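Q: Predict the bound structure with heme C.
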Amino acid sequence: MIAALALSASLATGPVAWVAVGDGIPEPLGGHRGDAARGAALVADRGKTLCLLCHQAAVAGPHAPAALQGNLSTDLRGAGTRWTAAQLRLRVADSRHLNPASPMPTMHARRTDAQDDATARVGAPWRGQPVLSAQELEDIVAWLETQR
Ligand code: HEC
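A: Predicted complex:
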């Protein structure tokens, strides 16, 4: 019951509108402050994020051994030196905003009209919902900033 309530609460949040300036999103989504430890746990959790399908990352967990990490894209070590928080936020929220051909899934789309909605074919409770909530996205950005 509690789990069901928690699930419906997290599904009810919906996408938060964000504004890109240049190649970044300067303001934290929904004004949330990120927590780097929670971000590391999310990145290590393949059931939730799938980052490790394509990237290598310095995270630990039963599903995160280096041998099972992907090599389709970058090693996320050093991401905090390559990019500012604003640049990281846009790259994780919507990589396709910068490169429409990017294979990296959009994690927090700001588009909500049905035509552009990449979630149009998922089950009704998930339709129109971001892959990562605003808080989860900020947690991952906070963790990426520590990757130097
Ligand atoms: C299906 C593959 C895939 C998944 C899943 C994926 N990415 Fe990416 N990511 C890419 C590719 C490819 C790029 C290179 C940019 C492009 O394609 O335009 C990239 C770029 C990035 C970059 C900027 C490049 C760098 O390393 O400095 C960051 C940061 C990043 N991804 C983080 C993440 C995080 C965090 C997740 C999980 C929430 C994730 N990615 C999930 C494929 C993926």
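A: Residues 5-12 have pLDDT under 50 and may be disordered.
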